[in-house]
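Human:
If only I could read backbone structure tokens as easily as an amino acid sequence. I am handing you a single protein, as its sequence and its fold in token form. I hope you can help me see how the letters and the tokens relate. Thank you; the sequence and its tokens follow:
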Amino acid sequence: MNVFDSLEPQVKKAVKKRFQKPTEIQELVIPGILKGKNTLVISETGSGKTESVLFPVFDLFVKAEHKPISILYITPLRSLNRDLMKRIQWWADELEFEATVRHGDTTQYERSMQSANPSDMFIITPETLQAMLTGKVMREHLRNVKWIIIDEIHELVDNKRGTQLSIGLERLKELIKTNGITPQIIGLSATVGSPDKVAAFLTGGKECQILNTSKKRMIKIHVESPTPNKSDVRRSEDIRIGPEITARLRRVTELIKDKKSVLAFTNTRESSEILSSRMSVFDSRIPMETHHSSLSKEVRINTEDNFKSGKTKILFCTSSLELGIDIGSIDFILQYTSPRQVNKLLQRIGRSGHKMTETPEGVILAADASDNFESTVIADHAIKGRIEATQIYEKALDVLGHQIIGMTLEEYNLPMLKAYNIAKSAYPYRKLTKEDFLEACFFLEKLRLLYVNKKNPEIEKPGMEDLVLKRKKNSWMYYYGNLSTIPNIKNYKIVDMISKNSVGTLDAEFIALHGSPGSAFICKGRAWRVIDVGKTRVMVEPMSGIDASIPAWEGELIPVPFDVAQDVGKLRGDIARSTEPRKALSKYPIRSSSAIKMIELVKKQKKWGPVPTDKQIVIEHGYHKTMDAYETYMIINSCFGSLVNDTIGRALSTLLRSKFSSVGLQTDPYRIIIKLPGPHWDHVLDAFNNLTPELMKKTIEQDMPETELFRWKFLHIAKRFGIISQDADYGKNYLKKIAEIYAGSPAYKEAMNEIYQDKLDMEKAAEALQMIKDKKIKIVVKDSLSPMGSAGLARRYELVAENKPEKEILAAFKRRIYKTKVGMICYNCTKWFHMGEVEITPKPIRCERCKAGLISVVPFRYVNEAEKILKKKLWKKELTPEEEKYRKLMERTASLVIDHGMDAVITLAGRGIGPSTASRVLRKLETGDELIKSLLDAERNYTKTRRFWQG
């Protein structure tokens, strides 16, 4: 007898059609759910955990009559909803109930039909629940809900979507309670670092059984990093990337040779696109596609279908395919470079070996030695089941404000105490004080989103129990306009000023933090320098070096945790101390190619001096050569992880700015890099030695409101509070003024809160500083830059193309100029001399009709207007002031053509180059490439300054 025998005959019959026998997780889960227990189910993808929850819920459903809506199934992605609906429909047909999907794309007609004739089961997103809770008709149906299932819950607990959902669930439970029902709540996840926290989040701290089989399943994972052979060196010249990267592409083809279906995960959308494009050049015979969140829904669905049907062998993807979307059986997982976190690796590796009889298998293809260290530690942690602790997003004040308004839409005169108790019962708000809640309510009143009224007007000093909340007319618009906590981020088009081609896009956050003219970034595998930032586009030029570049996708990178970075330091120390380093590495899941790279790096570092480890910080200082000059750096090699190093680094750079006008900061999981205006290393050392946890906290609190990061965060918080409209696009100075006006308000506090929770780790940073003070971590200082320290300065991001020399930039610019279309008309008789590309301009440049050399050059799009103006001049008709202005310009261009011939035509084809600028360029009497170089400089100057001459 197995657990299926405990199901109702109708359900048992349907189950037997699909499952011969229960899986381990089904045996474990079904009995408890049948008893009505709240449950958190943690098990690998493909273990049958979804069915382990659905079978007992369906069983309880068919046992008795239930009013719709009985079952709510909540998933974090619309694509999961779509996929789940396909699976549920079969069971719905077999068990004779109705299921439907509802989300943001559901048409108004479908919604009205769902309200009039609701299904027994609704599959929704967290945002859809928010909308349903305030709908007059849907609220009546929601009173009947008896089972709430939340899938992929780990995707929600650490962010504001989850925080919003947590109060939404408490609002829903309050509604259901009016029907005398206590709903059963069930959560599903493949990987969870802190099951107790997630269970508490799921139920609002109520009783919940945790059923976990995730640690029992074996996985096969190893790290490797191929060394280039002679063939790789030859091929690298053909596909225009380095031999190291070519070797990895070759290894990809070898690894997938005997596989039918492979997912190749990268950490960013850009890496996925570039890797796919390079692979298609390397071996075009392999059927491959790309999948990430920036692609349209139609493209993603088509890509998924092609992979599932076997048309595509390898799919290059990002976290968009981490979750349990059904794309068929997957043989193998390829992780390209370090996954940066253990839970990311486990989630991805778990996509292979879909059946429990199969073993999930994958490879991390690491890049340089540093990447090998990190990948090795993460792979080792994954095999041992050492997953990062789950972080709950605590007490988001903007979400609280939105939920308060939502509750006033549900109840006209809402007792404030009731609203407070509902909010506080949500786990992320368990520490919410009455003072916090009162402040939020009065702030919403100030924003004219609700009324805070006394129950009895005669009470002079009312407490929370004496107050009621009442909605206003604009409360509805505010609530529905802010259903999503995900910022609506504007994108800027990147335009190469040399070729005028579109390079890609940058989001507004990147522009806010890194997009000032002169700054550099990496996009599409190449380094670019910002020339000008407009309202919708960024003008850039190619750089011939990448030393100072920031990757356009840096914001996408998930942070490397403190524990991973510490164990990287420990592994460095083990190798450094070992007389047989290969033996020391033998217990790790790595190939010899990776071991060799790690050992070689440690050897080079030891030859230089001390090795930075988990117990030793190495501070080094010296000069780093860029293309133009030597720059002064101090590098603190600290294995503290991304957030801790950034927290300490921000405090340090702030303290140093009080001494120097210019201080640069760059951090990564293993370094804090300070760029100085001169050799003032003693100041950095003093600041670091004197940095206490208390000083760090105070410094960051004082400085953060002055940063671009804070203003960017405040912009989104202000939008969520309704302070400014959702489509607002204010300049930095205006935004600064708004932030100052709302200083100390819940919006201001939440902007700081979001930075502390997403971008910094004050607690761990304080812990690290205390370890230094307690001498648990040693500090060593050395004059000169080390191999490990310099690796952080090189910024050699994976898949970056070879440097683009100035000669190539000039050649591209020259091609564009010669391909530019112009109009050339005789200023004397108005006969057209030439209309077309510059390179096919007839010679000599002289009118065929009147033989005059006065040939005007006009932009191609203005040829009709130019002809009209010159004909009016010829017929001696009066010109308007505007026409007279353009007549003079044509006269001046004609004079330039008489004096300089073809060189004048070339110069006037430049963007923004009028007669005055052309005259200055031509005055140098340069020809050929020297003329092109001067023209390029003139265009650069125009791009930088054009905003000052417009409007």
